[in-house]
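Sorry to interrupt, but I need a hand with the structure work. Could you write out one complete protein record for me, on any chain you like? Just paste the record in under my message, thanks.

. . .
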Amino acid sequence: MSAYDDLMAFQRETSALGQIAGRLGWDQETVMPRGATPQRAEEMAAIEAVLHARRSDPRVAEWLEQADPQDDVGKAQLREIRRSYERTIKVPADLAKAIARVTSAAQGTWAQARAHEDVAAFLPVLQEVVALKREEGAALAQGGDIYDAMVEDYEPYTTGTQIARIFDQMRPRLVALRAAVLDKARPAALTGTFDEPTQLRLSQKLAETFGYDLTTGRVDKAVHPFSSGSGLDVRITTRTNEADPFNCFYSTIHEVGHAAYEQNIDPAYLLTPLGQGVSMGVHESQSRIYENQLGRSRAFTGWLFEQMTDAFGDFGIADADAFYATVNGVHNGYIRTEADEVQYNLHIMLRFDLERALMSGDLQVSDLEAAWNDRFKADFGYGVDRPSNGCLQDVHWSVGLFGYFPTYALGNVYAGCLNQALRAAVPGLGGQLAQGDTSGATGWLRDNLQCYGGLYAPRDTIQRASGVEPGPEPLLEYLEQKFGALYEL
């Protein structure tokens, strides 16, 4: 076997073990007994130690030096393996193991603290997580910016400064649009109770409508909806609220966007670095375009109105036009995952600035709640009412995902570019969506983006699919046109 063949065989085994670790995480958030948390922390630490040893194995460096693939796929594989290897060898094995142990335990502590509205119970373990992640960031940055090193895990070849520049372009127009819309009358609200079993049945139908393959996937419940896995085992979760079925339905569509990306990658890349989404920003572009530009479009909401009427009967909305307005209602709220398109990115900018400050040391963990509450009131005009609606609402920091949050807004930016190209490429899309047929849109995304997995760098992936250099203008134009028409601005 050649050095390249040896390297890829080794890499596939490492990727398989990584999938097992991911399955342990899925289990922890769905069906694991609460009392198993301490043992699970040890299990996660043990498998992370094995993974770290493999990812930093000196043979990887030798194979990288000797391998000489002639095709673009082989060169891309080496690019991603080399990037991972060079990052891994900078982080001591004991530190990687400690992070895995603490974040696994912190996840359970966060869930309990959130349930009991008890910030004080969470802060000590969050302090441990932040200290360990700052230590990891310093090892990775080697004198550079710690937060940039964190971002590299989720959006390669992007810096915090570049992200801040994009956000600075977006913020004034988003704030202005929000103010204009909130000055108008609110659309009608749903009335009645929406039982959980019916929500989950319709949720599964929506998953299949958007192309989710249930022979290699499944839908479960979790506190915080997520997608897990790649290749032939890609799972999603959703959640229910008997007063708000949109929470369930649009969480499902959102996670299907993530899952479909993983399911549609070229099977030749299975269990290799190219066999997964290239970045979280690109990943989020898929979930957001599924959820918003497709799922909240006038055409698709007309079909969904019929489905909900059949399932629940009268729920207080007169017709499909009123339902479209309700689905896209802009309203005050605390929860990022429930935020409308106009305000969602403002929630992300808040988190981006706070976590940058935590990583730089400008913000102490003990001051996080006050900083969150002050910033929220400044951005949204009203105060946080309880911790689960504030700094305890998201799981990300408890599991050490610093640098992850800005990719949600980058995903919206990318989705704006993709939507512009999609609408031009599939002129009959509206008519298809009105019949509950998403195949024109999802097929275009599969063929122009999803199938390539990690073959191209993130921004190159978006540019190749959309034909434009990624930037916020298409998203801002889409939002201003859509909500300008809805609210007669």
